[in-house]
């Protein structure tokens, strides 16, 4: 083994020992090399770029509706250690999607409202995206990429200042393409974990957890010829529905009433 490669490998191993021990909200062991504050900085930078490139909805009713659902979920979301406030922006786009970034940045595309047809179904999506942040899936994915590439200067990472390769890697870790308007899927493990976290949040907020199943039935219809699960980083719609139905059976009855969010 070349001396330089050996030094990089040894350094990576030391970083892993010092930084790598973490546990997700579901109790899954995680490998994390990047601090929460660093991930929050990356999320804030990406969100600022996204707001420059994407059209922001000015429809007051749509914004009020999305904010109403999101606020109910955030009321039952545990405080996050690396930021104080969440920010919600509705993007005027036909994309059937939503996302949440480290630093508490939530984006919802208006096209999603054609598939998430009720407040409860929207809560399932937004709760799922909040779950990605709560479980630090971005930090986990960036850390795995950094370790694989021997990139140890974690403290100096910044978008646009770390080279094209690292920038691509960081953006992918956040769930975004280099063109930040392009959303990238997380792994099946991350997606399934966020489903469970989001289900718990929507139940705690008083939304109907059974509507998460209806949401994914709608998604299955909307996606038409979706690829088989083996070829996709997302769980198949069938697997997702089965897992959610099983988890719903284990949920305690909610003691909270969801707000009356008026769909535009």
TrEMBL record:
Record's keyword terms, sorted: Hydrolase, Metal-binding, Metalloprotease, Protease, Zinc
InterPro entries cross-referenced by the UniProt entry: Mito/Outer_Membr_Metalloprot, Peptidase_M48
Peptidase M48 domain span: 62-246
Cofactor binding comment, as recorded: Binds 1 zinc ion per subunit.
Domain of life of the organism encoding this protein: Bacteria
Pfam family, one: Peptidase_M48
Recorded family membership: Belongs to the peptidase M48 family.
Cofactor: Zn(2+)
Protein's recorded name: M48 family metallopeptidase
Protein's organism: Enterovibrio qingdaonensis
């Amino acid at each position: 083994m070349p001396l330089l490669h050996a030094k990089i490998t040894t350094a990576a191993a030391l970083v892993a020992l010092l930084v790598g021990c973490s546990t997700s909200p579901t109790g899954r062991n995680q490998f994390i090399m990047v601090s929460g504050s660093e991930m929050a900085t990356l999320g804030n930078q990406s969100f600022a770029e996204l707001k420059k490139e994407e059209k922001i909805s000015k429809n007051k009713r749509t914004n009020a509706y999305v904010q109403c659902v999101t606020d109910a979920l955030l009321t039952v979301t545990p405080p996050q250690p690396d930021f104080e406030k969440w920010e919600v922006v509705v993007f005027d786009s036909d994309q059937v999607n939503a996302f949440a970034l480290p630093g508490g940045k939530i984006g919802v595309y208006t096209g999603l409202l054609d598939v998430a047809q009720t407040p409860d179904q929207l809560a399932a999506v937004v709760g799922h995206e909040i779950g990605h942040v709560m479980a630090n899936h971005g930090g986990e994915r960036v850390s795995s990429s950094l370790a694989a590439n021997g990139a140890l200067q974690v403290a100096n990472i910044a978008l646009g200042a770390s080279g094209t390769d690292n920038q691509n890697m960081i953006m992918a870790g956040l769930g975004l393409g280099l063109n930040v308007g392009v959303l990238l899927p997380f792994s099946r493990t991350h997606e399934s974990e966020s489903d469970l976290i989001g289900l718990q949040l929507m139940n705690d907020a008083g939304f109907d957890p059974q509507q998460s199943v209806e949401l994914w039935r709608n998604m299955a219809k909307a996606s038409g010829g979706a690829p088989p699960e083996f070829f996709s980083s997302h769980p198949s719609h069938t697997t997702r529905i089965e897992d959610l139905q099983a988890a719903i059976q284990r949920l305690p009855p909610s003691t909270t009433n969801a707000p009356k969010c008026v769909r535009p």
